[in-house]
Amino acid sequence: MAAYVLRRLLLMIPTIFGIMAISFAVIQFAPGGPVEQVIARISGQGGDDRLSGGGADAGAGGNFDAGGESSKYRGAQGLDPEFIAKLEKQFGFDKPPLERFGKMLWDYARFDFGESYFRDISVLDLILEKMPVSITIGLWITILSNLISIPLGIRKAVKDGSRFDIWTSAIVIVAYAIPGFLFGILLMVLFAGGSFFDWFPLQGLTSDNFDQLSLGGKVLDYLWHITLPLAALVLSAFAVTTLLTKNSFLEEIRKQYVVTARAKGLSEQRVLYGHVFRNAMLIVIAGFPGAFISAFFSGSLLIENIFSLDGLGLLGWQSVLNRDYPVVFATLYIFSLMGLLVNLLSDMVYTWIDPRIDFERRDV
Question: pTM for this structure?
Answer without folding.
Answer: 0.69
